[in-house]
Amino acid sequence: MIDVLYFAWVRERIGLPKERVETGAQTVADLVEELRQREARYAAAFEDLSALRVAVDQELSDFDAPLSGVREVAFFPPMTGG
Amino acid sequence: MEVRVQSAPFRPGEELDAFTAAVPGAGAVVSFTGIVRDDSGTLAEMVIEHYPGMTEAALTQIAEDAQARWSLSGGLIIHRFGVLAPGEQIMMVATAARHRQVAFEAAEFLMDYLKSRAPFWKKERTATGDAWVAAKDSDEASLDRW
Fold first, then answer.
1. Is A17 helix (H, G, I), strand (E, B) or coil?
2. Containing structural domain, residue B35
3. What is the domain count for chain B?
4. With contacts defined as CB-CB under 8 Å, which chain A residues touch B140?
5. Rounded-to-integer distance, Cα A55 and Cα B94, Å
6. B52-80 average pLDDT score
7. Do B132 and A77 touch (CB under 8 A)?
């Protein structure tokens, strides 16, 4: 089980901030593909991966990152701090 | 370096006075305060979302990177989240060093990384609707100089 978190417009598009996902995905990209297959709102949120960033266990990562032993994955648009 | 993530407003002048008092011997203190701007004249409020846990970790990492790179007498990062009105302070950084060049450079470094490596997202609410603030390519490009 992995906690999957969504922020900003990704959260709005999917309609929830966080969910627990039962997955056999090996990488973040595999997880994205599983989510895309679920429903149109997921497909819409993950339509353009170049517009998204990913954090694995609260560290910025990339879509090739392995999920073995990972507890938390977050998807969000490029950050706008400051 | 002190890192604070908070919803409550803060007073930049008071923060700067307290920061300066805590870095005796520093010959230079630089500070920057970011303020909610209303370019269109229609902004009702700005909502800042963040990623609790990762936000603090990311800011602490940025602070540690700055300390490893420059010889600083001290540093401060304050960043707010939640609902902010136009004119309110969003965030502030302060750096202290023996000389001004180091203090200026470290403050710019903190700001550049804070813009695109700290998990905050800004949304503008106006009478005609809400819109997420898009990241600028120039913000990402500004990291190249470091």
1. coil
2. 2-145
3. 1
4. 78
5. 28
6. 97
7. yes
Answer for the pair B43, B64: CB distance below 8 angstroms, yes or no: no
Q: Which residues of A touch B57 (CB under 8 A)?
A: 58-59
Search chain B and give the residue with CA nearest A8. Answer: B121
Q: Which domains does chain A have, with CATH numbers?
A: 2-76 (3.10.20.30)
Compute the distance between CA of residue B22 and CA of residue B106 in angstroms, rounded to an integer: 18
Backbone angles phi, psi at A74, to 5 degrees: -125, 140
* Contact in structure between B135 and B116 (CB atoms under 8 Å): yes
Please report the pLDDT score of residue B137 as a whole number.
Answer: 87
- What's the ipTM? 0.95
- Would you state the pLDDT for residue B82? 98
Contact (CB<8Å) B49/A7: yes
pLDDT at residue B140 tops 90 = no
| In contact, B90 and B84? CB cutoff 8 Å | yes
**Which string of DSSP letters, residue by residue, matches B7-52?**
SS---HHHHHHHHHHTSTT-SEEEEEEEE---SSS-EEEEEEEE-T
Q: Is the pLDDT of residue B7 over 90?
A: yes
Q: What is the pLDDT of residues A8-43, one digit of tens each?
A: 999 999 999 999 999 999 999 999 999 999 999 999
How big is chain A, counted in residues?
82
Helix (H) or strand (E) holding B129: strand B129-132
Residues B72, B1 contacting (CB under 8 angstroms): yes
Residue with tokens 């996902």: A21
CB within 8 Å of chain B, chain A residues 21-80: 55, 58-60, 74, 76-80
